[in-house]
Design goal:
heterodimer, A: about 240 residues, alpha/beta, Rossmann fold, six-stranded mixed sheet, B: about 425 residues, alpha+beta, three-stranded mixed sheet, 14 helices, 15 strands, binds adenosine-5'-diphosphate, binds magnesium ion
Amino acid sequence: MAEQAPSNDQEIIRLEDARKIYQMGTEQVKALAGVTVSFKKGGFSAIMGPSGSGKSTMMNILGCLDRLTSGSYYLAGQDVSRLDDDSLSEFRLRYLGFIFQSFNLIPQLTVQRNIELPLYYLGWDARDSENKARELADQVGLGDRLGHRPTELSGGQMQRVAIARALANDPQVIFADEPTGNLDSATGEQILELLVKLNELGKTIIIVTHEPIIAERTQSRLHMLDGLIDRIEGNSNETN
Amino acid sequence: MRQTRIARNIWLGIENLLLHKLRSFLTMLGVVFGVGSVVAMLSVGEGASKEALEQIRKLGSNNIIISSMKSAEEEAASTQHSHRAMSIYGLTYEDYRRVASSFKDIQRAAPVKLTRKDSRLRERALELRIVGTTPEWSELVPRDIVAGRVLLQADLDKQAPVTVLTEFGARKILATESTIGQTVRLGGDQFEVVGIVKSESGQAGNIQIPDQDVDAYIPIEVARRYFGDIFTKRTSSGDEREKVELHQMIVQVDDPKKVEAVAAGIERMLEQFHKKKDYVVSVPLALLKQAEAMKRRFNIVLGSIAGISLLVGGIGIMNIMLASVTERTREIGIRRAIGAKRRQIVYQFLIETVVLSTMGGLIGLGVGGLIPLLITYFSGMITMMTLKGILVPLLISMTIGILFGLYPAVHAAKVDPIVALRHE
Ligand SMILES: Nc1ncnc2c1ncn2[C@@H]1O[C@H](COP(=O)(O)OP(=O)(O)O)[C@@H](O)[C@H]1O
Ligand SMILES: [Mg+2]
């Protein structure tokens, strides 16, 4: 179903002339106005830009939550721009992880159940899921909070749970949309360190952020403006 | 593996419902009452048919029972001047001969002549009902033999003074003494006990069951010779004499479909030969129709309650589930973002609804189980829980869950994850 990517195996993500156009009455809003860009496998990249520049739209497309109006998207060597809803779900489930600004944990589920969620949809049995959840909670430093509910945790702890959950399916790419936006700077720093460590362990990470402190730690920075790429800093390949 | 997964999904559904116990309970109420009504309806219905079948079994399913009965005019006359001579009424030997020989669909028939006599064996005494009849009796009113035998044609031919007692009376009279071959006194005469049979006794619908607990069966000719056709009844206004040849005729038709036609024929025949209506023709099979009619009335009442409750219950569940979907939009978005497919969201919400309605069904089963008990307690009507009476309501409650859960579940699956994740 998916074609071979037209480029080298150094890159995990490639957008070609990607457009996302919203029809607002008679007006067209070009949230993405023809973007061609690729992201390196194992890289740590930031997407930056002013509000309304198309960062979230870009993340939704890259995260297989939304589809392009036109253009192509290759993910891990497969063309995913023409996939149907079920196949996109399958892709998210197997290859992607998400971290959100507002954590997005399910409040009525315990920490353990939140972390297990991707495993549940992957069809893991209860015992394996539990073991994996424990292991991940340890990894993010919350091994003693498995039975707690998200409301009993601090913001930083909630974001750690979200990270553990994002790791549960052993994803190829982790998308983080302003993950430190709701945290104080010290806690934000800890979360950043966690992400840096994950990147060192080989995960590709793409992060939307406004904060220069965070941007400094990434290997490439993609600046967006009005649905287009304004400039790229660092070692990502770009054709605009 | 697949089974444990289903069990796990169900458990997850239960967990979610337990988060809002009161809300879940209130949501269930409609289904509780609906299912309760269905359970009650089925058990009343089952009870009614079982009771009717039981009664027919006691009375004989193909039997017609014709009984002598003082006509209304005669009754009125005798109460006015009680010292009047003798009232003559009821079935005659001639009636019996005519009925028994005129209908080709009648398989067998037995005449019955009744009188009550004090019976004794040594110092033990008991008033027995003396039933003069023929061997056909034991085929028309088949009862288990406890000891000895039933009446035989030979007894009739010889006009032998022998008797078959019913178990209850026999135990009173004979006590511990050896039973068969014992001689007892019935009225002024000695009879040899040749057998003991079980009895049913009592009332079935509005028809008297032919046998009683204190019967002594003797050959009809013997009864006629020893006790005659004239009986003295003691009433408050003095002795009353009446002449009755036969108190009953029991007739068996070879095909249940013909029972009512034959009964009507007998009725017409008797009308010709009786100036007054001094007999009554009872058809046990009619009890089944009475029971069916009662069952229908109950079903209409309880069925409408059940239908309305189930509809209201279903709509209530749907309403709450729709609210729940809105409330949990963000959760749905999270699940979708993580990789849940639309149909898995449908499945999740559908399971929750089905669990909710099935729990309502189970509680309804409990409540509905009580209603028949109360009905039995207050009206004496027999009610009965059957496997069908349990499975059908449960199936209905599950179906309600699926039917009214489908729309909210599909609604939930349509949630756009991008919008949902922005949802506050
Ligand atoms: N669902 C939508 N419908 C219409 N316009 C949208 C929608 N989503 C985003 N947009 C528009 O697309 C542009 C880019 O938005 P977005 O990607 O959210 O920017 P950012 O995340 O950089 O602030 C904005 O002008 C926004 O108004
Ligand atoms: Mg944004």
